[in-house]
């Protein structure tokens, strides 16, 4: 283990490379790679890495990048890639394929606003667009969280009770291009944590089938139902993986969500990624002034951790959601999920705040304004737009 | 119809009985001859959305006796790249074969195909070209011949067919060839040669589609023979994208004998000047290439 100052993209590349390398005694690893800001340094890092048994295929598009991952995974390799924004949009068809094929591919999604108009800054709308694609989704708030989550992603994805791909999301620039200290593990540790990748339904001559061929409606329903069950399994598989991780790496990675000062909190804010860190500081200050306020950092978005969230919200009276994404005609996507979770809980005032869209810097002042608004409210309204430039 | 006897009962057949191909489908002959040429080799098939994936039938059965990946429409060369990467990393001997229609090849998959060819991936790509989108009911594609009536060109297609062989040759891939289901010897020889070469190999097979061509199912192989003999579908090979070998030259068979047996060409009956002009131009080009850049020795083998 070495403690290093590194950019988020570097940390992500490092984690992917070590995970790929850990499958060298089996069928190796393979990445399909295509550049887009702000993830490009991840695929550059991978292209420079010398794998014992692995290849980074420099393709002509994101659609093919995921196509290569699908082929490699069907043939038994550990497969991974990275993308952002319009790259994810272009890849969409094959993102769904990977989910429905149930291949344990891991993809870094470095969150960036979808264009046009062109904007390279952070917004979670790109990865959230893939919410129905049968991928697990994790959101990271720091470099260490990113590293740990990426390794955990392979472990959970390849578990036969799950067998689904995983998106690991991080903030464009705020995380991808800034340096933070992180403990980087050794190859031996990763080897121990990640057993050889085994894909039971891959291409096999002993039992030739058509993978991804036609099914009738009842079989398709069954297929979707099994995916739902596997999503539900992922919650306990994640807990097991955390224990294993702690044993090998000596620290405990975050689970489905993290809470702070929620025990007696009457007001709770929910956020993800680096916004949650700013929120954390604000909660600290307000607690010091005696306010009964706490927060939840949502780390896992798929499967959506309903029970954990309900438990964390407890008896809070007000819940505010900070959404750095926007579903036109509805509102924030995290808010929609939380609203669905809180059905029947008329005792909770749930308010959505659209904040930091298109990469606006979410400052402590913005967060305080949100909390003040939430505490003043008699009732919830349609999602509130919070302009970060003022 | 030509009957096919495999050289020996080596392994499961590529195409199983009970598949869903229409009677007289060019794929049925093509897949069986491909099977024969493979001998004991056990391929992995990669098939995008097209009639060729319907051939497999519905889960849990499979019309293919070899492991098959059903990919998205544009993705077969990318998925095949991932598979062949792993096959090569793990020293397996299985050829990775894309089996794709003209829509997946000439149109939606062209960028993916071009990139895989440019990277010289270790893949055999076979396009069974029925000159329409058969799966979706016979719409025009970039491979549809000029004048052909399709479900989206009721007056006959006004544009000519894309020269996919020239496009592939421009990638300087080790081997590109056309295949006729009317010439078994030539078919097997070329597929076997393709199997002996490493890198990206492209094979184009004219694939009759009685359903879309509005032709008689029992005429399919004869139709391809007529297409070859009239010069409309030349049989030739291109080595490393630059050296040409013509396998069969047109005899004096008029193209009308080919057109007249297919209702899709009804606009060209007694009106075949444009397509004849296309044939003449195509042959001037091919003869010139084969004269200036003749294929002497075949390119490097595995
Ligand atoms: C992205 C996408 N667009 C459209 C389709 C619908 N579609 C399925 S097969 C097909 C046509 C296939 O034509 P071709 O490749 O020529 O093969 P054929 O069916 O003639 O064998 C189309 C348009 C699809 N599956 N995916
Ligand atoms: S529609 Fe044409 S290409 Fe498709 S299976 Fe039938 S004959 Fe073959």
Structure description:
The complex is a heterodimer of chains A (390) and B (302). Chain A has twelve helices and 16 strands. Chain A has 390 residues and is α/β, with parallel strands linked by helices. With 302 residues, chain B is α/β, with parallel strands linked by helices. Chain B has a single domain (26-292), classed as Rossmann fold (3-Layer(aba) Sandwich), CATH 3.40.50. The interface between A and B is large, with 44 and 45 residues. Iron/sulfur cluster is lined by residues 21-22, 25, 27, 51, 130, 134, 209-212 of chain B.
Q: Share of helix among residues of chain B?
A: 25-40%
For the CA atoms, what is the radius of gyration of chain A? 20 Å
Mean pLDDT of chain A: 97
The total tally of domains of chain B equals: 1
SSE run of chain A: EHEHEHEHEHEHEEHEHEEHEEHEHEHE
Ligands in the model, by name, code or SMILES, are: thiamine diphosphate, iron/sulfur cluster
Question: What key attributes describe this structure?
Answer:
heterodimer; A: 390 residues; alpha/beta; Rossmann fold; 7-stranded mixed β-sheet; 6-stranded mixed β-sheet; 12 helices; globular; B: 302 residues; 8-stranded mixed β-sheet; binds thiamine diphosphate; binds iron/sulfur cluster
Task: Give a concise summary.
With 390 residues, chain A is α/β, with parallel strands linked by helices. Chain A is 40% helix and 21% strand.
Topology record:
The complex is a heterodimer of chains A (390) and B (302).
Chain A: E1 2-7, H1 8-21, E2 29-33, H2 40-48, E3 54-58, H3 62-74, E4 78-83, H4 85-101, E5 106-111, H5 125-128, E6 136-139, H6 143-158, E7 166-171, E8 179-184, H7 187-193, E9 210-211, H8 217-249, E10 257-260, E11 267-271, H9 275-288, E12 293-298, E13 300-302, H10 306-313, E14 318-323, H11 333-341, E15 349-355, H12 364-376, E16 384-386
Parallel strand pairs in A: 2-3, 2-4, 4-5, 5-7, 6-7, 11-12, 11-14, 14-15, 15-16
Antiparallel strand pairs in A: 1-8, 6-13, 10-12
Chain B: H1 26-38, E1 44-47, H2 51-54, E2 68-70, H3 76-89, E3 96-101, H4 102-107, H5 110-118, E4 124-129, H6 164-169, E5 175-179, H7 184-196, E6 201-206, H8 210-213, H9 220-229, E7 235-239, E8 243-248, H10 255-259, H11 273-292
Parallel strand pairs in B: 1-2, 1-3, 3-4, 4-6, 5-6
Antiparallel strand pairs in B: 5-7, 7-8
Bound molecules: thiamine diphosphate (TPP) and iron/sulfur cluster.
Residues 21-22, 25, 27, 51, 130, 134, 209-212 of chain B line the site of iron/sulfur cluster.
């Amino acid at each position: 283990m070495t403690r290093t100052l590194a950019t988020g993209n570097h940390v992500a590349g490092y984690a992917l490379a070590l995970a790929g390398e850990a499958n060298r005694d089996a069928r190796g690893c393979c990445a399909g790679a295509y550049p887009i800001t702000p993830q490009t340094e991840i695929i550059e890092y991978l292209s420079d890495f010398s794998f014992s048994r692995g290849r980074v295929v420099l393709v002509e598009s994101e659609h093919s990048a995921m196509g290569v991952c699908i082929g490699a995974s069907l043939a038994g390799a550990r497969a991974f890639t990275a993308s952002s924004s319009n790259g994810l949009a272009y890849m969409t068809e094959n993102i769904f394929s990977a989910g429905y094929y149930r291949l344990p591919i891991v993809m870094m999604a470095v969150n960036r606003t979808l264009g046009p108009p062109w904007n390279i800054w952070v917004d979670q709308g790109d990865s959230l667009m893939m919410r129905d694609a049968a991928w697990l989704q994790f959101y990271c708030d720091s470099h260490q969280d990113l590293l740990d989550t990426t390794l955990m992603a392979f472990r959970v994805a390849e578990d036969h009770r799950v067998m689904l791909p995983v998106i690991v999301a991080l903030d464009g620039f705020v995380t991808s291009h800034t340096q933070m200290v992180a403990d980087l593990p050794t190859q031996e540790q990763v080897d121990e944590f990640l057993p050889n990748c085994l894909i039971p339904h891959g291409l096999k001559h002993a039992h030739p089938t058509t993978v991804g061929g036609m099914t009738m409606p009842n079989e398709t329903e069954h297929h979707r139902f099994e995916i739902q069950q596997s999503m539900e399994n992922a919650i306990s598989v994640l807990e097991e993986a955390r224990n294993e991780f702690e044993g090998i790496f000596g620290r405990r990675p975050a689970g489905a969500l993290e809470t702070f000062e929620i025990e007696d909190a009457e007001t709770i804010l929910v956020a993800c990624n680096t916004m949650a860190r700013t929120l954390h500081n604000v909660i600290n200050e307000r607690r010091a002034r005696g306010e009964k306020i706490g927060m939840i950092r949502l780390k896992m978005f798929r499967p959506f951790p309903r029970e954990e969230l309900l438990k964390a919200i407890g008896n809070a009276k007000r819940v505010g959601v900070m959404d750095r994404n926007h579903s036109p005609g509805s509102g924030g996507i995290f808010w929609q999920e939380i609203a669905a979770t809180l059905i029947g809980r008329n005792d909770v005032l749930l308010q959505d705040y659209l904040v930091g869209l298109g990469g606006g810097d979410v400052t402590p002042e913005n967060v305080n304004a949100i909390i003040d608004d939430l505490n003043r409210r008699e009732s919830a309204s349609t999602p509130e737009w919070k302009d970060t430039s003022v | 119809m030509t009957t096919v006897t495999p050289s020996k009962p080596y392994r499961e057949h590529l195409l199983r009985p009970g598949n869903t191909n229409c009677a007289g489908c060019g794929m049925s002959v093509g897949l069986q001859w491909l099977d024969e040429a493979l001998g004991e080799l056990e391929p992995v098939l990669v098939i995008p959305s097209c009639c060729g994936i319907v051939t497999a039938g519905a889960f849990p059965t499979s019309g293919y006796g070899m492991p098959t990946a059903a990919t998205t429409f544009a993705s077969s060369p990318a998925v095949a790249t991932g598979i062949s990467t792993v096959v090569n990393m793990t020293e397996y001997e299985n050829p990775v074969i894309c089996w794709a229609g003209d829509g997946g090849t000439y149109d939606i998959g062209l960028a993916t195909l071009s990139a895989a060819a440019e990277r010289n991936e270790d893949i055999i790509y076979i396009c069974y070209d029925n000159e329409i989108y058969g799966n979706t009911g016979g719409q025009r594609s970039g491979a549809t011949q000029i004048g052909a009536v399709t479900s989206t060109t009721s007056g006959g297609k006004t544009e000519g067919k894309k020269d996919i062989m020239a496009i592939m040759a421009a990638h300087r891939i080790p081997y590109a060839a056309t295949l006729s289901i009317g010439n078994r010897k030539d078919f097997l020889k070329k597929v076997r040669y393709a199997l002996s070469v490493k890198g990206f190999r492209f094979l184009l097979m004219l694939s009759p589609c009685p359903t879309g061509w509005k032709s008689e199912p029992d005429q399919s192989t004869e139709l391809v023979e007529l297409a070859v003999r009239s010069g409309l579908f030349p049989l030739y090979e291109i080595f490393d994208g630059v050296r040409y070998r013509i396998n069969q030259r047109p005899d004096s068979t008029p193209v009308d004998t080919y057109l007249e047996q297919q209702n899709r060409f009804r606009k060209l009956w007694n009106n075949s000047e444009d397509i004849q002009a296309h044939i003449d131009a195509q042959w001037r080009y091919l003869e010139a290439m084969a004269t200036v850049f003749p294929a002497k020795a075949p390119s490097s083998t595995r």
